[in-house]
Amino acid sequence: MVFTAGQIAGILDGDLNGDPDIAVHKLSKIEEGEKGALTFLANPKYTSYIYSTKASITIVNKDFVPEQSLNTTLIRVDDAYKSFSRILEYYNQVKNNKTGIEQPIYRSENVTYGTEVYLGAFSYLGNNVTLGDNVKIYPNVYIGDNVKIADNVIVFAGAKIYSESVIGKNCIIHSGVVIGADGFGFSPNNDGEFQKVPQTGNVILEDDVDVGAGTTIDRATLGSTILRKGVKLDNQIQIAHNVEIGEHTVIAAQTGIAGSAKIGKRCMIGGQVGIVGHITIGDNVKIQAQSGIGRNVKSGEVLQGSPALNYGDYNKSYVLFKNLPKMSNRLDELEKNTVQSKEV
Predict the structure, then answer these.
(1) pLDDT tens profile 24-74
(2) What does the record give as the active site (predicted)?
(3) What is the pLDDT of residues 74-108, one digit of tens each?
């Protein structure tokens, strides 16, 4: 894809200093810029690179004043970082704007879909599947019976969406994701064996949810496993049955959340966090990486450790943890001196 400086300035509503017809076809860091590349300068630490970059176009803040001659066309905007992010988003939209139906695919007779849909080769669409406008289904995707997918959803190659799942608008589901597999429900019988409990619920993703590669979201035993609007999941996360995650919560990789846990709005959960089932975590909670959460958490708490402590208490305790060998040596020395004093 090729864009001219004039086109980019129009997209960003920026001021152009230089050749409006100069074209770019790729993106780069400013220190690695070369002919045909678009880059940006937002951090003052990188200012020196703008005088040596070979990038054809550079996005800068409006208050940037060059101290040397430049070999790059400038586009001046209010916020260079945000504007470059807009270009990245625009670039992705154009790149992913595939349409049409490739062959071979399997599509049941009662599948319905809107306009500008893309169905990649070897995808499978079961009975009563409904797809909205501008839905992109990449190759080797499985979509089970009665699944509903709203407008502007992207499902990347190899994802599996089990029956009855509901996907809201503007969601992104990456490769290897499994949505709607059975929850881990087994009941012991009198012989000490475990009998499977049927998982009859579904999974609901509300609008603007991102699900990272390899993540699994289990269907509910009864009712729904629900990810509310704007939830963002990293790669390789396990969401168990009947979990509910509040709006705009973000969760980093390798976190596991056990069944029926309820997580509030705008929480930030680090990588490799373990959360037990049937607890409630409030809004605006921050949990540091590798923490273990085994209790209810009030809104606004910041936690670290396993089992997790208040973040401030954990740091104070850690000072003691790392000094335990020294403290032990001092105790041994005190005991030795005490014994010697008694003997004297």
Answers:
(1) 999 999 999 999 999 999 999 999 999 999 999 999 999 999 999 999 999
(2) 241
(3) 999 999 999 999 998 888 877 778 899 999 999 99
Question: Which residue stretches of the chain are H helix?
Answer: 5-12, 80-95, 311-343
Superfamily for domain range 3-95: MurE/MurF, N-terminal domain (3.40.1390.10)
Which residues are identified as catalytic? 241
Which 3 state secondary structure label does DSSP give 293?
A: strand
Query: 80-95 vs 5-12: helix axis angle to the nearest 10?
Result: 110
User: pTM to 2 decimals?
Assistant: 0.81
Number of continuous H segments (helices) and E segments (strands) in the chain: 3, 40
Cβ atoms within 10 Å of 307's Cβ, excluding its own = 12
Q: Of 76, 140, 150, give the one whose Cα is nearest residue 112.
A: 150
> Token pair for residue 191?
């012989």
Q: Which amino acid is at 238?
A: Q
Superfamily per CATH, domain 159-306: Hexapeptide repeat proteins (2.160.10.10)
Report the run of H or E that residue 204 belongs to, with start and end.
Answer: strand 202-205
Query: Which residues of the chain does CATH 3.40.1390.10 include?
Result: 3-95
Judged by DSSP in three states, 32 sits in helix
Of 63, 64, 56, 77, give the one whose Cα is nearest residue 10. 77
